[in-house]
Amino acid sequence: MPRMNDTSRRRRFADAAREERPDLALLCLLVGMEADSGLDEAGLDEAQIELDRLAGQLPFSPGGPEDWAAALARLLGERHDFRGVPADYRRLGSSLLHTVLRRRRGLPILLSVVWMEVARRAGAPVYGVALPGHFVVGFGDPYGSHVLADPFDGGRPLSSEDAATLVSGATGAPLSASMLTPAGPLDIVLRILNNIRAWASARPERTDVRLWAVELSLLLPSHPAELRYERAQLLVERGDFMTGAKELEDYAEVVEAVKPDAAETVRHEARAARAMLN
Known about the structure:
The structure is a single chain. With 278 residues, the chain is α+β, with helices and mostly antiparallel strands. It is 58% helix and 8% strand. It contains twelve helices and five strands. The chain has helices at 6-17, 24-35, 41-55, 65-79, 97-103, 108-121, 160-171, 185-201, 207-219, 226-237, 241-255, 260-275; strands spanning 126-131, 134-140, 146-150, 156-158, 182-183. It has a five-stranded antiparallel sheet, sandwiched between helices. α8 runs antiparallel to α9 (207-219). It starts with 5 loop residues before the first helix and ends with a helix.
């Protein structure tokens, strides 16, 4: 089956992000298509079918939140050995859903996506929890009776104290109630793309990965304005001086009213980029 070209792929991602109920698995798989030239429509279907297959192995309506969490841990954490290891943070594939489904290894947020998508298909009351520095899942009513589980640790149940320890270890700050609110699909996708940008930023030779991660982020309905600046800088770094300079100038216009000094700095960068053409 032929692979979609860049324009069609980006259009599909943008359209999927604007659905009334965005399909988290599809969005994650479309991210994977940017990274993996071998992932085509058949590969997307295979990944969705695998999620369906795993969901079909869960017991029917096992009970309350604790029972759902335990059922997912037995199925995914024990039987299929989905979990994370420190080395996963060094792999781009740890942020790609189709790769995580194949390797059974990944970052906390991608393993959480697997937990959520399998549980959702089986009818579980599941949601994502974007703790600072460590993504987990919740079962039940996020504002009432619920339990948390850590897919990176095979689905280990988390007490409030456990969650507080994770947050403190990542940020040094205490756990707050706002950190436990459900994360929406688009927030999850943006965080995944932020992780990919961070991975690429630590590898100067992978500006290609960083660029597409920024460009996909910009297609989301809500995103940080600073991403426009990052894209312009990347274009300049990659030798597209004219386009990069123009985008730097456009960004300077946006921030002029609130940050005039920053705008002038950006304009200076644009002039320097144009000078590279001579």
